[in-house]
């Protein structure tokens, strides 16, 4: 029997049919979510009817084979030349229903239906997209056997197969220049997540995808050294010395060293994101194979936002003093920071606090949300009130501030009568225009270190909160900076009531919220809306906020209504590390 053989070879990765075999297929079991198996496509068998042929074709499309050679054997010769499998990938929540329509002696019609959860576009970018999916396939007899004569471009996979076949990786671009900055700075690298077939020459595919340019969403805020340049290398991989050589279509790179160096930086950062222990350096050669430049880790540091200085901060629950968590993480052993925020008798009682990424300055909101202060974290520093105030009722004023990697401070005023978002540069506030709110208001925000992406906590008229990712664009002059947040897109559409959000990596957020009729829990989500394989973290009773940072090695912390700070351990369990404490926060 051909079909059981397909399923045995494919394991949990194959898209099963609707018959008895699918009842025991591993793809149906939740305990195999992280299982990755190699998929071997099977050639068309003789005597298959249109429905069986289509089911086997769908299996063949997820095979670990370059060029979809076997899958194209299920098509007529003309359609095999026309079909564009890379046009898009439709991801369904479960197995599709394959329904037989009209059948004649020489022609037949079959439809595929399912519940769609997401799509990959031609640039391999992920986009959540729900709703009913429907596709039609036409068949004709060729040499006495059914073949597909018409089909939609792209692939159709279920969620389990998608996670087995595709791997989420980042390609890296440079943040666009900000004309309002007083002096030029080295542009920061910005990750642009895409999905590649994990076992089909991933480094080569990543290099080609990088040269093809950023996703449509990110494109307005970034630039690339590969403008008009393609990758000519057919196969890219490290040699024994962990050096990758990439040949590109540019001419005479030796005379354009800065462009060459930036190409190398983009390539190296993209490669190390998916093969950190296999690649140390990148050599870029021109179209004739002449060596242009060599780039190592040290060169990429010039374009990387500095990580947070210091560890976690929190506030003493009684005095509201700002405390630095002890490295011993012994409950009650935190140390008060130097300066006004660490004093027992504070000049002004503070609410939320954000520490700048260098650890030398903090922004603090008055406990009633009416005013914003800046203060140094050194002995003798003074509490300095900014011009930013809010006339909102208590609890609806200024949000928790957030620092980007350039030292700009971001904050939202939640005043129902006049909601707004502000960026402070050198204590001077500038209004930030937010497109696409649709009547919603910004209740909180977390800016990425690169300053190009911002996670927004949005509330609708009913008070329900969701989180969306926005793209930051800068214009104007040094005297009159102009800032726009645009391209809002949901990143956790399954959560209907979000109360906190924090960056957990340069391309990932940890979001505290709950699903419909569910309980509140923290969840890891990608900035593109995709969920991590281990997406849901264990909840603590009465959780109120979460704290993480863009260093993936840093621990996740949370607080709860019992006035304790908890640390998430490598075993997935929470452990109390500070008592009589609240509001954990990393620099940023």
Account of the 3D structure:
- With 588 residues, the protein is mostly beta strands.
- It has 3 domains: 2-167, no CATH class; 169-301, no CATH class; 313-585, Neuraminidase (6 Propeller).
- The strands form 8 sheets. The protein has an 8-stranded mixed β-sheet with strand order 20-21-22-23-27-26-25-24, with no helix packed on it. Strands 1, 2, 3, 4, 5 and 6 form a 6-stranded mixed β-sheet that branches. A 4-stranded antiparallel β-sheet has the order 15-14-13-36, with no helix packed on it.
- A hairpin with a 4-residue loop joins strand 30 and strand 31 (531-536).
- Helix 6 crosses helix 7 (257-274).
- The longest helix is centred in the middle third of the chain and has 18 residues, at 257-274.
- The protein is globular and about 90 Å long.
Could you give a short description of this structure?
Residues 44-163 form the Lipoprotein LpqB N-terminal domain. With 588 residues, this protein is mainly beta.
Blueprint of the fold:
Layout: H1 2-10, H2 50-61, H3 69-72, H4 77-82, E1 89-92, E2 97-103, E3 107-120, E4 126-142, E5 145-150, E6 155-158, H5 159-165, E7 166-175, E8 189-197, H6 202-211, E9 222-223, E10 243-247, H7 257-274, E11 281-285, E12 291-295, H8 297-301, E13 313-316, E14 322-324, E15 335-336, E16 350-355, E17 361-366, E18 371-376, E19 384-389, E20 402-403, E21 409-413, E22 420-425, E23 428-434, E24 441-447, E25 453-459, E26 465-476, E27 481-490, E28 495-505, E29 508-515, E30 521-526, E31 531-536, E32 543-547, E33 557-560, E34 564-568, E35 574-579, E36 581-585
Parallel strand pairs: 1-6, 10-11, 23-27
Antiparallel strand pairs: 1-3, 2-3, 3-4, 4-5, 7-8, 7-9, 11-12, 13-14, 13-36, 14-15, 16-17, 17-18, 18-19, 20-21, 21-22, 22-23, 24-25, 25-26, 26-27, 28-29, 29-30, 30-31, 32-33, 33-34, 34-35
Helix pairs in contact: 6-7
